[in-house]
Design brief:
By secondary structure, the chain is mainly alpha-helical. It has two domains: about 60 residues; about 70 residues, no CATH class. The protein is built from six helices and no strands. Helix 4 runs antiparallel to helix 5. The two termini are about 35 Å apart. The mean pLDDT is about 80.
Length: about 160
């Protein structure tokens, strides 16, 4: 039961950014709906005043502001990524990028090491296979390993293609 729960929790933690994006998208759509209502009200007032051409100018201006804001946001993200690595050697930058994979591979190597030598010891001490398997692949080991695998593959499943 704990294995299933931790697997589900790890899988969902990989998708947590997407879930948060859904809430952000809902908020953005609500804001866009309010903006559309305000624009419709403005359009009705402008039509009443006979200023339909002004509406197109305002529309173009709004689109330009949105494009500029998106470009500024993207530039700020790139600048932030560059600023993180400034002053650091390439070795430090590479080590920062390899931390999570290194921990995962280390955990996998430890699991393989313990299982292989555990079974080797069990065979030489005449421990039955099912007893050795229950000792080496216990609930805690299953929980840890399912969490690691679910996190990595859950993250991949939720990322945009």
């Amino acid at each position: 039961m704990l294995t299933l729960l931790s697997t589900l929790l790890s899988f969902l933690s990989g998708g947590l950014p997407k879930i948060l994006d859904i809430f952000q998208d809902h908020s953005d759509k609500k804001h866009e709906l309010q903006m559309a209502q305000m624009q419709l009200d403005q359009q009705m007032r402008m039509q009443a005043a006979g200023l339909v051409a002004q509406e197109h100018i305002e529309e173009i201006h709004t689109e330009q502001m949105q494009i500029t804001a998106a470009a500024d946001e993207r530039q700020a993200l790139y600048a932030h990524d560059i600023a993180i690595g400034q002053g650091a050697s390439q070795w430090v930058i590479n080590m920062r990028a390899v931390v999570r994979p290194f921990i995962t591979f280390g955990l996998f190597g430890l699991l393989v090491f313990v299982d292989i030598f555990g079974f080797y010891y069990a065979i030489h001490t005449n421990v039955p296979f099912d007893v050795a398997l229950n000792i080496l692949w216990d609930d805690e080991t299953q929980i840890i390993w399912s969490s690691v695998v679910s996190f990595w593959f859950g993250t991949q499943a939720f990322q945009k293609k």
